[in-house]
C-alpha cells in the first residue's frame, strides 16, 4: 500500500502508550565535533581539498564531490554575523518583553545558528565579528548548548 493511500481500517487516534525505542546520535562527525567543544572549547571543521571548502559543523563526506573528509581543522571561535532575527515569543507562545537575538554566525565556509549575547539588539549589525563564549568546562555536556552564546569581538 502506498503512503498516499489511507488504510480505512487504521485507527485515527491512539489512546494508549506507544513505546519508542530509538536513540538519536550525532554520527561520527558530530560526535567528534561536539566532543571538541566539550573537552577543549574548540570548534572544528573538515576540509575538502577537491572543492576547497571547510565545513562547519564538520562532516564525514563532502556534499559536493562525495570525497571522504579526514582532515580536521580548528577553525577558531570567531565568526561573522551573516543574518539574525529577534525572537519576541517564548516556546509556549507567550510574549517576551525582551527580544532574544539569534543569528547565523559564518565560520569558515559554514556556520552555526545560535544565541547572541552581551549586546543590545540595537547594537547588532550584519558583518560584525562575534566570538563563541563557552560555558565553564565543568558545565559542558557535549552539545551545541556548550556554547553559551556568541558575543561581539572587542
Textual characterization of the structure:
This protein is mostly beta strands and 154 residues long. The chain has one domain (27-152). 9% of the residues lie in helices and 35% in strands. The protein has a five-stranded antiparallel sheet, with no helix packed on it. A three-stranded antiparallel sheet has the order 2-1-3. Strand 5 and strand 6 (110-115) form a beta hairpin. The protein is globular, with a radius of gyration of 20 Å.
In brief, what are we looking at here?
The protein is mainly beta. It contains 1 helix and 8 strands. Helix content is 9%, strand content 35%.
Main beta sheet, described? 5 strands, antiparallel
Q: How many helical elements?
A: 1
What is the 3D form?
Answer: globular
- Taking all residues together, what is the mean pLDDT? 92
Strand percentage: 35-45%
Q: How far from one another are the termini? A: 61 Å
Helix content: under 10%
**What is the chain-wise order of helices and strands?**
HEEEEEEEE
Features:
154 residues, five-stranded antiparallel β-sheet, three-stranded antiparallel β-sheet, mainly beta
Which secondary structure elements does this structure contain, and how are they paired or packed?
Layout: H1 27-40, E1 44-48, E2 53-55, E3 72-74, E4 78-89, E5 95-107, E6 110-115, E7 129-134, E8 147-152
Antiparallel strand pairs: 1-2, 1-3, 4-5, 4-7, 5-6, 7-8
